[in-house]
Amino acid sequence: MEGYCIRLKEDLQGQVPRGRENLGRTFGSGCVRCGKREKAMGQRIEDTVTVITGASSGIGRATALIFAKHGGTVLLVARREAALEALALECEAAGGHALALPADVTDPGALERVARQAVESCGRIDVWVNNAAVTLFGRFEETPLRDFRRVLETNLLGYVHGARAVLPWFREQGRGILINIASGVAKMPQPFTSAYVISKYGIVALSDCLRQELVDVPGIRVVTVLPGATNTPLFQQGANYMGWAARPLGPVADPERVARAILSAALAPEREVVIGAGVRAGIALERLAPALRDRWAARWVEQGHFEERPVAPSSGNLFQPMPEYARLRGDWAQPARQPGWPWMILGGVLGLCMGVALAGRGR
Ligand SMILES: NC(=O)c1ccc[n+]([C@@H]2O[C@H](COP(=O)([O-])OP(=O)(O)OC[C@H]3O[C@@H](n4cnc5c(N)ncnc54)[C@H](OP(=O)(O)O)[C@@H]3O)[C@@H](O)[C@H]2O)c1
């Protein structure tokens, strides 16, 4: 089968995108370009058309590669065009089909064009992964408001824009999977990253609201993925007003681990996918003993999330992408120093005991 998608970009130049009226014609009969036949959702990744935002680095990049390795068609969205083009070639070499569609997720029109181009090229969208995000380290009162707002615009409104771009097509198709990548911090807050945490809480709420609003179309599924600390360039690219270089907090997973969970969600969608025992323990503790967690969170985060390496205040990649970090991994294979981590496990166990004791007393 020819690798149509790289060339397709040239094909599309100057064309008026096909409207939704053509969807019925192409949907069910396979891709308009390569003639791939549609399969029932969740059966075979090789027959799946997936849009991935934030594909130029980290988890999005790993997700594109794993879908491609399984023969899937991936439409790659981010701002760093050269990185997307290079990734598209890697995806083709891995056995998939890929098309780079540079776009800024803060622009709703840009994501509408992405959705339209996806349908234009492949006849349908099976899976849309909202994944693009930025982060911001700093004390709440010392963080520039402009940066705070940009995090919410990218992480939360970016997902809203993605959902609004794809849901009309899903409704038309009667099916589709929307996967929203949140974070463990969406259910266990942490200090010095408040804009990021707020955006992640909002993403869980967005998924929950959409799930209820879409009950009339059972073929549309909404999945929230909650990864823990992952070895990606997120921390190097992030805005930083703490004065110290940031690093992942807690045990660090490989981006491929999260990518595999996203692949599973595309095959067998669930409401929520929590990745890692540490995230589960943290969420349990937050539910059972929030005041206890409040007390040591600040110390734990300050010690574990930052290195003893001073950095100048910076808005990182919030407004302009950073080409040097267009890669799969950050530089943290294993945590160097995580003094609070054993305490977190202990806290989780204590919280669990307290919860069980309180539940017993309530009977
Ligand atoms: N790494 C972790 O520890 C961790 C933990 C839990 C959850 N997560 C979540 O996992 C997802 C992926 O993060 P990651 O760790 O892989 O970070 P990353 O390597 O920094 O990747 C972020 C991606 O978002 C894109 N992006 C940022 N701003 C954008 C914009 N305005 N428009 C379009 N794309 C934009 C970036 O590409 P461009 O700069 O080229 O636009 C990049 O591809 C995020 O939702 C993150 O919150 C990460």
Automatic annotation (TrEMBL):
TM stretches of this protein: 341-360
Do you know which Pfam families this protein is assigned to? adh_short
Limits of the Ketoreductase domain:
48-232
Q: Which UniProt keywords apply?
A: Membrane, Oxidoreductase, Transmembrane, Transmembrane helix
Keyword flag Transmembrane helix: yes
Which domain of life does the protein's organism represent?
Bacteria
Q: Which InterPro entries match?
A: KR_dom, NAD(P)-bd_dom_sf, Sc_DH/Rdtase_CS, SDR_fam
Instruction: Please name the PANTHER family in this protein's record.
Output: DEHYDROGENASE/REDUCTASE SDR FAMILY MEMBER 7B, DEHYDROGENASE_REDUCTASE SDR FAMILY MEMBER 7B
Q: Which family does it belong to?
A: Belongs to the short-chain dehydrogenases/reductases (SDR) family.
Name by which UniProt lists this protein: Short-subunit dehydrogenase
Organism encoding this protein: Candidatus Methylocalor cossyra
